[in-house]
Protein 1
Amino acid sequence: MSNELKMTVEELETFIDTEFPQVHHGGRSFAIEGIRPMGATVRLFYHDRHLRPGGTISGPAMMSIADYAMYIAILAQLGPVALAVTTNFSINFLRKPEQKDLMADCTLLKLGKRLAVAEVSMRSEGSDDVVAHVVGTYSIPPRG
Amino acid sequence: MSNELKMTVEELETFIDTEFPQVHHGGRSFAIEGIRPMGATVRLFYHDRHLRPGGTISGPAMMSIADYAMYIAILAQLGPVALAVTTNFSINFLRKPEQKDLMADCTLLKLGKRLAVAEVSMRSEGSDDVVAHVVGTYSIPPRG
Amino acid sequence: MSNELKMTVEELETFIDTEFPQVHHGGRSFAIEGIRPMGATVRLFYHDRHLRPGGTISGPAMMSIADYAMYIAILAQLGPVALAVTTNFSINFLRKPEQKDLMADCTLLKLGKRLAVAEVSMRSEGSDDVVAHVVGTYSIPPRG
Amino acid sequence: MSNELKMTVEELETFIDTEFPQVHHGGRSFAIEGIRPMGATVRLFYHDRHLRPGGTISGPAMMSIADYAMYIAILAQLGPVALAVTTNFSINFLRKPEQKDLMADCTLLKLGKRLAVAEVSMRSEGSDDVVAHVVGTYSIPPRG
């Protein structure tokens, strides 16, 4: 596995805006904070749309940000030709998030020819406590 | 475990409308199709809001309907005092759903004093093929 | 997916005895109870080797029987050329098993070209209560 | 959560030898390499008993070492009164392990009053590649 990334943050954002505009449906929810070999960090803006009563970020919003972090990490590594599909997604909810942006750190545990496996730890901005933890598997289509 | 349900479908709908109005934020997405001892069936209306380009129902929408089905099955069994919290949620995406309503069948595998474990099979209306399969764990708070 | 099975129980047992004799290391632990389209039932003999103090069947023994049930169900469907490899295995332990043989019922949720996904419910012989529940994913190698 | 550990490695080994002698049934398989606040590292000796043909460490052996690492990390933190029970165990098999000892690094993501959630990364000794990754949940009994 080469440690050279195939896309910059700017290229990733342009790619997402063009190919998956629905990610930002209703207003921009996510931002790419940084990418690195076999990893990415993504931010979920604290926003009414993602909240449960009491100000807690909803489960589906946490799932969406984790899925986004994994997809960005895979894209950065493989380049824009990749069309990975989530096959398994397992999340443990550990603590109530604070009323702040949520940061999702993704590490690719494996990036094989057919499968990628990634883990994501989510923390409220500025906190060390893991709010939720995800392990996901992506199926990578054959490359020509 | 008694096989007697503590709530009717009507009571469940009233409870959800009152306690969790945000479930229906943006328009009514879910309907309770039926409940039974240790199980429930819930419908996700096929609707623009839940779609990915190409008309596929999005992953987060599938997660929401599965979570809803599990919560309804637990509520029906325990009554409205219960405030179960999802602790683990694991989903396998198996096939592309059709451009139809999505039916989620939940069976409670265990309903203990502290933990409930449930599985959910999701199918496009009128089809036998499982589109996605979920196993979830809920933590049940101590009852007075 | 054809509903025609490619192997009989006898052929499956011969195949396992020849290719994976270590399954029976230390004495015969498993028996194939039956196969059907997209499913199989396997028995774990109640035996000292699989026990925890107090007579409870150990977690690893439950994992082994579930894995075996999934592998038999896939082999029956694909025939002896298949060399499926477990990629994900998720188990929920629900109840203490009884001091009896353990029956594992496997259903294939999906049998695609590259991935198979199966669920397994384990019950003590003669009981309806699910003792443990597994969802597993297998990677299927390209077929020539 | 206090960062002070309640047991030393020596006390942990004595506790396991006394309370769970079956862990070492057939010869000593595991060794505690080290403990730290909210974490532990455990070694699985490369040994015939754990092998599949070709010299690969078997899935059940990997599951056993991961479960052991999680249990040691919880015990070190809570002390010998704890009797944690595995409720969910999810493993991703990523690479073939080498013909060497297997090292399992456990980190507790949460240690609550009722639930502990841990992750474990397994690597062949001297390698950086993750061979298998586990997330597990333990139910912790009420403490008097």
Protein 2
Amino acid sequence: MAERAFQDQGSVHHCHGCGAANDKGLQLKSYWSGDEAIATWRGEPHHCGGTRENLNGGIIASLIDCHSLNLAIAHAYRAEGRAIGSEPRIGYVTANMNINYLKPTPIEALIELRARIVKLEGRKAWINCTLSAAGQIRATGEVLGVRVVWE
Amino acid sequence: MAERAFQDQGSVHHCHGCGAANDKGLQLKSYWSGDEAIATWRGEPHHCGGTRENLNGGIIASLIDCHSLNLAIAHAYRAEGRAIGSEPRIGYVTANMNINYLKPTPIEALIELRARIVKLEGRKAWINCTLSAAGQIRATGEVLGVRVVWE
């Protein structure tokens, strides 16, 4: 992971889930792994769900959402041969997100995310993302992103 | 809303999205409205998404998730004629969540949530939830919750 994270290159600035400039956010960092995007993240005790032992489902949704859209953004810049964050800025917003929670995610575990683009059509990108911890997939997400122009 | 919120009655304690005991969480408060559950919530600037003007999609997912499961929990207690939070404690965990983001949600707006149970079968509850702001539905969620026993 010698290359800087998409977010540190300016893919997104202020987002609660992944903006490097949001010091109260989750600050997810996404990187290329071939044509896929990978990220690792570790929660704090207050990111728990219904029990203190497990990661919150909304936090899981946030991580999957941000990681998936960051892949779409990074892919779009790469396809245009431009640096991430260069003008005009490329944004993606979520149109649909469908998450299957397969098993509990231990709160203290290192979270691993892996996303890949499964379809591109016009402004739309369909991304599949897995969230793993302790060697097991805990949740899977299907995210539909729509490209927009960000100021 | 004279009655206390489900969360303040002990439906959930520590959850990042809605636990009253989680002072770093979103502290969503859900109430009965007939057979439905309603809630209002207002974000802070750091809860923004890709642009600072709009609420983060992961936060929207958190609110829909927590509000929907709290309805399932409250309904289960009511069906048993028991006070929310009484022993043995009733919990629900999310198995699937499918969210359609219909339009941006202004970050400064008061968020309104409304959830209703559409199907119950064994330990499973299917809940539909809308998230509105400024008089318009901004996102809809379908949540499948599975009943569990919480210690």
